[in-house]
Write a structure and sequence with these properties.
382 residues; alpha+beta; NE0471 N-terminal domain-like; Double-stranded beta-helix; 2 domains; 7-stranded mixed β-sheet; 9 helices
Length: 382
């Protein structure tokens, strides 16, 4: 059974758990109080602003109730609130500061060519049925950053049904979707038979589309295999080889642009390796075709920056990093465009190769997955 103590000033509560003590500040506890005057019972949104909480909030008393909840009385409001100790443990912030720059949260797993034997894949009909099949497929997509779909309809527009599994289409200047097949005088190199270096899509957008879906309709041309590379694994390999090179790509912005259509001039200024303020690795933007002139690196660091940029490209091009597969008509794959780079091998002008692609956003994907996990926990607890 957990136990609680309060420091003499009333500003810190300590919850003793089997995993060790967890400390919480009085103002944090008050701000996160679950009572119906603080949070709306239906949706959990806060009903008060921080200005409504006294600046001198302190804990007057605390203890364990008979039902196992932690009861806390706050002064000067003289307000009593009960907390679920499991919730407190889950949301504890009293832990060591994360490690080296480029750390990854639990549940994210990096990979290389070894994943080719177990590429995450879901059957379309099973995914449409929801339940564990969809939850687990979405979980794999979040863990690895990509997943395949098999046995979807091999018909135009079917990719929207894939997006419907978890979210909504994000429309761009390319429309709700785009065609990937050979064109005469193409507006984008993606519409040729040339092989493409592994890249993230649309780095010139701000914000970048966070999910991409590619769905195969025809595939009789020789070549044209799809390939994916874990950008997080590539960035961490660079960090382990040369921390200075990693820091250069994380600390200085690159510039990306696209002006391939009349009336369109898309630009973005972001680092190739994006870190959160606490060092978490949160994103990769790598697309040599769309990289504009680099002007945000100091003169005395530019040569070293280019060496780091070159080395990251070499790591991405290493076949030991890639997973390659050929999409058959009715198959699709979904990638986290902030993490996983995708490419295709060159293909011949004979036969046909026709894919349709579209963009969506990762927040809806995460929401669908997390809501399913949450519902499962609630059902199991009943």
């Amino acid at each position: 059974m957990p136990s609680v103590t309060v420091d003499p000033t009333g500003t810190v509560l300590t919850l003793a758990t089997p995993a060790g003590p967890r400390r919480f500040h009085a103002v944090w506890l008050r701000d996160n109080a679950p009572d119906p005057e603080t949070r709306a019972p239906g949706n959990g949104q806060k009903l008060i602003a921080l200005r409504d909480i006294p600046a001198d909030t302190r804990i007057a008393a605390a203890g364990m109730r008979g039902d196992g909840r932690v009861e806390v009385r706050f002064d000067p409001e003289e307000k009593t609130v009960a907390f679920d100790p499991a919730w407190l443990e889950e949301h504890a912030y009293d832990h060591p500061t994360p490690r080296a720059r480029g750390w990854l949260p639990a549940g994210v797993e990096t990979w290389d060519a070894g994943l080719a034997e177990s590429v995450p894949c879901g059957d379309f009909a099973a995914l449409q049925g929801g339940g564990a099949a969809l939850r687990d497929w979405l979980g794999s997509l979040m863990r690895y950053g990509f997943a395949k779909v098999a046995n979807a309809p091999a018909e135009p527009g079917a990719l929207f049904k894939v997006v419907d599994l978890f979210g909504y289409v994000r429309e761009t200047n390319y429309g709700r979707h785009f065609e990937v097949r050979t064109e005469v005088d193409p507006t984008n190199l993606a519409f040729t038979g040339l092989g493409l270096q592994a890249h993230t899509d649309n780095p010139y957008r701000d914000p970048v589309p966070t999910v991409q879906v590619l769905h195969c309709l025809e595939s009789s041309a020789a070549g044209g295999e799809n390939m994916v590379v874990d950008g997080f694994a590539a960035a961490l390999r660079l960090r382990d080889e040369n921390p200075e090179a990693f820091d250069l790509l994380a600390d200085h912005c690159a510039r990306f642009e696209y002006v391939g259509e009349e009336g369109v001039c898309l630009t973005a200024r972001r680092p190739m390796i994006e870190l959160a303020p606490d060092g978490e690795l949160v994103g990769i933007r790598f697309n040599n075709r769309s990289c504009a002139a680099l002007v945000d690196v100091p003169f005395d660091r530019m040569e070293a920056y280019y060496a780091a940029y070159r080395r990251l490209g070499e790591i991405i091009d290493d076949t030991a990093m890639e997973v390659t597969f050929r999409l058959a008509p009715g198959e699709a794959f979904v990638v986290d465009n902030t993490r996983v780079l995708h490419a295709r091998k060159a293909y011949s002008g004979t036969g046909t190769r026709w894919l349709q692609g579209c963009y969506a956003d990762k927040d809806a994907l995460r929401s669908t997955h997390d809501a399913m996990v949450r519902a499962g926990r609630l059902e199991a607890a009943q």
